[in-house]
Specification:
The protein is α/β, with parallel strands linked by helices. The chain has eleven helices and eight strands. Strands 1, 2, 3, 4, 5, 6, 7 and 8 form an eight-stranded mixed sheet that branches. α1 packs parallel to α2 and α1 packs across α10. The longest helix has about 30 residues. The protein is globular, with a radius of gyration of 19 Å.
Amino acid sequence: MTDDPTRVAIACQGGGSHTAFTAGVLRGLFQDWPDRYELVGISGSSGGAFNALAAWYGLVTADEERAAALLGAVWDDLAADGLGDRVANDWVVGLSRLENMGVPVPEVSPYRSPGSEFGQRELRETLERHIDFDELPDLCGRRTPELVVGTVDVNGGEFETFTNEAVTTEAVLASAAVPNLFEAVDINGHSHWDGLFSQNPPIDDLLTVPADRKPEELWVIQINPQERAETPTSLAEIADRRNELSGNISLNQELRTVERVNQWIDEGHLPESDFSRTEITRLEMDGEYHCSTKLDRRPSFIEELLERGAARAPELFDE
């Protein structure tokens, strides 16, 4: 019988401000991380990419305590706490609610709106305030967790992930570049959009690693609800549910591949000497929120999601 810790990878789904829930889950995990687990990988798309990066950076530069603190600091900065920021937040959320009620609202391309450039500049400053991206290549190593950020290549029409030292400020900004809010981010001559339209979150990159680093357990923190009791009727609700389904479809497809490999191992079709099982656990965000709240950065709302996530974190250890 071995005393080696169980290897775990965490995949963080995107979903705007709702991903503060994921930050709360990660903080709860790191504040009481047991020795029986070893984190070998973490991935994320959109807001999930912010969480994955902050958690990874805190861990590799210090420890679990630093990771939990860094997640809190990043979301403190993302919250709309200044007067101008609060006014802008209320305006954006209010427009979204009016649109949901069927009221015609002006639509402006992010390429013709100063708000797009301002928003991306604010996100860049937040990232670079807490993360030294120049340090990342030296931090990546054989025994550090795999770091994966998901985007979509607009020109190439392909999902694209950035791993470890390839995770730059641009890669994370691209992962959060919602097309109707922000301009696409140029990386290597190609435009990139939000990871919500690709692998949400990336799974395969967490598993295609050396055998001794492959996770034995995969924990998925899922923001998009798998089921909704009500059928969306307004255009805004329909668009939101369509995006949720798109993200969940890519996630479920990747997880089914993992489950199929597990089944083939159990049935003896694949030799256990060359293949290993990866158990999957999902933690789905509870509670139903209006689609406009994915844009809501009120400090009180962010704190509510952080606390809700932290309260749910022990469920992963229980599983």
